[in-house]
Design brief:
heterodimer; A: alpha/beta; Pyruvate-ferredoxin Oxidoreductase, domain 3; Rossmann fold; seven-stranded mixed beta sheet; 21% strand; B: 340 residues; alpha/beta; eight-stranded mixed beta sheet; three-stranded antiparallel beta sheet
Chain lengths: 636, 340
């Protein structure tokens, strides 16, 4: 993305009003390139819903969008407390963007706790909309305010709009027979309506959503409709908001688009991979944040021959998936770090039995239970090495919500082509974030060829560990096939026959074969690409969900004349075969990671070079400015 | 899957793999292996449709010795592997071979959930009341006070009783048999194979090296008639060398009574393996030596919907309602917009 300073620029323009046109409500309409808006409030205030509606409405308006939901681990932390604050940030623009934006142009705070925890991210002169009714003594005390910030001058550097949202929402829904509690639940629609007016968004998508969602409860539907419109009309009529903004459609590549979250894209990609490889899809899963939505999404699509198994625990989830893989179908398990820790032994079994298996790790803050709803990239070394014995397996990472669709198909392609479990890393930021996805033509997707040895009746024993010479993959014989009966398991296998073997030389050979098999995947994956010059002073090397921040920061640095390139890895094991050469062409390598330097360790060990780490472990993604400043620091 | 309508005639030897069997001499596992091969030869299931899945322990080497498909998985997890396998391939005959440590310690969670789901699989638990492969620590079924390598002053954990657990999970088929009682063993395995749903079979199995004679009371010629009782569906519970004693219900509790002196067979508890309520089967599973004779045979055999049927029915239902799944339509789900 470029930056989201558009609003600040337009704020200046606003004063001169040179670009202003006149609307029917006699308020100025300013064209801007993009904006970042954050809704925040109590976790019961419906902020995720508000954010999602603004997202889909902006996407339907043709903007590029990127989102960042941020919510507490507690389902309902005590009302009004800082611990219970839930937020949703959305960046929409008329140009291609890659991040949900650093600082926000407009902040909607439904209570004092939300204001106090989010205000630091609002730009100077940014728009601040607060629910004035919630700023009473109890709420203020819970947020730690001695004085009411509305009116004490502390919010002077923002364009403050203190709106009596509760009162006006209650008035709007009067006569519908709703209780006060029910009426107050419509406040988020009032807030939405106001923001929709502010950014010249159509109410139609949200009105359609209300019909669909609350169709069976006409009273609630009507209340939400009224609240939404009341917010919109408030914007039109109130004195003090003189300007609204308009963001044109983005010039995205031609095609049909929809908005997807990372976990949805993973599920869609898995279904595609199963169809493309002509397999039943079996997902073994145990509910865990932030991976559960993969289970929820897949279970809605059983007509694609999708079987979802909510297991008794993480271990059952992965071992059942192994059972499905042994059966000759697509075995998948999806979890997050703590669950992956429990699956480690079973992943070793899949390595030993050389069965294709997809293991998805939607990373969250660790260690232990850590920060369940916050993002981190600290499981890279876990999935690389967190098993007993010499136990290599391929590791891939998705870089954005839409990219999950492609990444998961590639992971399954490698799994069946090389007969190996494959780990695909995502993270909480990708999983719950969203962006427009250009819908592919299903006929254009890459087929995933799978061969199973045919039945036979010649009496010759079947050799389950005889290998393809190039890939070193063993045959995938399906139970039920005549003449191919065989036993596999976790004990060391004799080369070729697959019988149990404790022979020292055989063990050495098998350990080497398993390692070599994974290493040879490098011959089967694309060469690594570099954005920018292929040699120079500085290369930013990144992986996973930091893609957007790194790509944008490098782009901005280069636009400012800096010599810097960007290399973003999808394949973390094995590394692309040209990566050594790429790295050798730069004076310095900068590796920004949401961990304490895990890729850096791997790179330094693999290529015996020095790399500069840029670690961040705050449960939050990188902002563009953080990476940009680091680049500037290294180049100064 | 074979499309032949006639199956080749196979002998027990056809079910032996080419691997040397490596259990200790005199181990009860040999007998179970022999009976398994024998009943396999008599079942109308193509050899390649059979899958044996095990965890870790002496019993769990079993799949390596069967010329069928097999997975020697990781400790305790065989029921979960079987769940995935059977769900995607309901056509296969799936057997889980496990032991008291594998099934009840490390794998306890998977065992109870597999049973409650009632997949059409057979779980055979070799109970020798000891850890054999790790050389003699007490197991979850070792009696209180048992002296083992890890309990030199005696075991202090109250033992688990496999059948009580299975019945507690409302298993649809529950049976007990004994390794040396080969005819009964073979017959019990056959009943398990024929049952549609999870069949849970406990086999009293002797470990001659680390826990020899643990089941002597149930196998010794002199004592077995008094310390075990054969369950037969629809028959009264009678036991003893002279078949002159029986089990009668006294309120909620069983009691041992002697026939005669006014007590007739009609006063005794009649075994009903098909009772929909598991309470009586549970009561039988609580009868322990030496207070009671221990029941041998089928405790419970009832019908209940099976997981692999239900999970595949949901797929079939979704396909009937929505068609076979169209990627184009899937991708275009939700609101879309076009850029030209």
């Amino acid at each position: 993305m470029r930056d989201n300073d558009a609003n600040s620029d337009s704020a200046k323009e606003e004063s001169t009003a040179t670009m202003a046109t006149t609307t029917k409500s006699e308020k100025a309409l300013l064209s801007i390139e993009g904006a970042t808006v954050r809704f925040c409030g109590d976790s019961g205030d419906g902020m995720q819903l508000a954010g999602n509606q603004l997202t889909s409405t902006s996407a339907l308006a043709g903007n590029d969008v990127a989102t960042f939901p941020d919510f507490p681990a507690e389902i309902r932390a005590p009302r009004g407390t800082k611990a219970g604050v839930s937020g949703f940030q959305i960046h929409f623009a008329s140009k291609e963007i890659f991040t949900p934006g650093d600082r926000v142009d407009a902040l909607v705070a439904m209570n004092p706790a939300a204001l106090s925890t989010n205000l630091a991210d609002l730009k100077e002169h940014g728009i601040l909309i607060v629910n004035k009714d919630a700023f009473e003594s109890k709420g203020l005390a819970q947020a730690g305010y001695q004085e009411n910030p509305i009116g004490d001058g502390s919010l002077e550097k923002y364009r403050l709009h203190a709106v009596e949202m509760t009162t006006m929402t209650r008035t709007a829904v009067e006569g519908l027979g709703l209780s006060v509690k029910e009426a107050d639940r419509c406040r988020n629609f009032f807030a939405m309506g106001l923001v929709f007016w502010l950014y010249d968004r159509s109410l139609d998508p949200t009105l359609r959503y209300i019909d669909q969602k609350f169709g069976k409860r006409p009273g609630v539907a009507e209340a939400n409709r009224r609240a939404l419109k009341a917010g919109y009309h408030y914007g039109e009529t109130v004195e003090g908001i003189a300007t609204r903004f308009h963001v044109d459609p983005a010039r995205l590549p031609p095609g049909t688009y929809r908005n997807v979250m990372g976990n949805t894209a993973l599920a869609l990609g898995m279904i595609a991979a199963a169809q493309l490889s002509n397999k039943r899809l079996f997902l073994g899963a145990y509910p865990i944040t932030p991976a559960s939505d993969i289970l929820h999404e897949l279970t809605r699509h059983k007509q694609f021959d999708v079987l979802t198994f909510q297991a008794e625990d993480e271990i059952a989830a992965v071992t059942a998936a192994i059972g499905a893989s042994f059966a000759g179908e697509m075995g998948v398990t999806a979890s997050s770090g703590p669950g992956i820790a429990l699956k480690a032994e079973a992943m070793g079994l899949a390595v030993m039995t050389e069965l294709p298996l997809l293991v998805i790790n939607v990373q969250r803050g660790g260690p232990s239970t850590g920060l369940p709803t916050k993002t981190e990239q600290a499981d890279l070394l876990q999935v690389m090495f967190g098993r007993n014995g010499e136990c290599p397996l391929p590791v891939l990472a998705a870089r954005s919500p839409a990219d999950c669709f492609d990444a998961v198909q590639e992971a399954w392609r490698i799994a069946v082509r090389f007969m190996t479990p494959v780990v695909l890393l995502s993270d909480g930021y990708i999983a719950n974030g969203s962006e427009p996805w250009r819908i592919p033509d299903p006929d254009g997707l890459r087929r995933i060829a799978v061969e199973h040895p045919a039945a036979r009746d010649n009496g010759e024993p079947f050799m389950p560990y005889a290998r393809d010479e190039q890939r070193l993959a063993r045959p995938w014989a399906k139970p039920g096939t005549k003449g191919l009966m065989h036993r596999i398991g976790g004990l060391e296998k004799q080369d070729v026959t697959g019988n149990v073997s404790y022979d020292p030389d055989n063990h050495q050979r098998m350990v080497s074969i398993r390692a070599e098999k994974v290493a040879r995947i490098a011959q089967d994956i694309p060469l690594q690409a570099v954005q920018g010059p292929d040699s120079g002073k500085l290369l930013v090397l990144s992986w996973g969900g930091t893609y957007g921040a790194c790509a944008t920061a490098v782009h901005q640095a280069r636009a400012a004349g800096k010599s810097v390139a960007h290399c973003h890895l999808r394949y973390l094991n094995p590394f692309p075969r040209n990566l050594r050469e790429i790295l050798s062409n730069f004076d310095r390598i900068l590796i920004p990671e949401l961990n304490m330097g895990q890729l850096r360790k791997l790179i330094q060990a693999e290529y015996v070079i020095k790399a500069v780490g840029f670690p961040k472990v705050q449960g939050k993604p990188f902002s563009v400015i953080e990476v940009l400043e680091k680049i500037e620091e290294l180049l100064s | 899957m074979s499309t032949d309508t006639t199956l080749p005639v196979l002998k027990p030897a056809n079910y032996a793999s080419d691997q040397d069997v490596r259990w200790c001499p005199g181990c009860g596992d040999y007998s179970i292996l022999a009976q398994m091969k024998k009943i396999m030869a008599s079942l109308a299931i193509p050899q390649e449709q059979l899958v044996f899945i095990s965890g870790i322990g002496c019993s769990s080497r079993f799949p390596y010795y069967m010329n069928t498909y097999g997975v020697h998985a990781i400790h305790g997890r065989a029921p979960a592997v079987a769940t995935g396998l059977k769900s995607v391939r309901p056509d296969l005959s799936v057997w889980v071979i496990t032991g008291d440590g594998d099934a009840l310690s490390i794998g306890g969670n998977h065992l109870i959930h597999a049973i409650r789901r009632n997949l059409d699989i057979n779980i055979v638990l070799f109970n020798n009341r000891i850890y054999g492969l790790t050389k003699g620590q007490y197991s979850p079924t070792s009696p209180l006070g048992q002296i083992t390598k890890s309990t030199p002053m005696g075991a202090i954990d109250n033992p688990l009783h496999p059948l009580s657990i299975a019945i507690g999970c409302e298993a649809t088929f529950v049976a007990r048999t004994i390794d040396v009682n080969i005819k009964h063993l073979g017959e019990t395995l056959r009943r398990a194979a024929e049952h549609r749903g999870t069949a849970f079979v406990e086999v009293y199995q002797n470990c001659p090296v680390f826990n020899d004679a643990a089941w002597d009371y149930a196998t010794d010629r002199d004592s077995k008639s008094d310390s075990t009782i054969q369950l037969e569906h629809g028959k009264p519970l009678i036991f003893g060398k002279n078949r002159d004693r029986g089990i009668r219900l006294s309120g909620m509790d069983p009691e041992v009574v002697t026939l005669g002196k006014g007590i007739t067979e009609d006063d005794l508890l009649f075994h009903d393996e098909q009772s929909p309520e598991p309470s009586l089967a549970y009561l039988l599973s609580r009868m322990r030596h030496p207070e009671f004779p221990e029941p041998i045979g089928v405790f419970r055999a009832v019908d209940r919907p099976r997981y692999e049927v239900l999970i595949n029915e949901q797929v079939a239902h979704a396909r009937k309602e929505r068609g076979n799944g169209d990627l184009e339509a899937l991708f275009r789900g939700g609101e879309t917009w076009s850029v030209s």
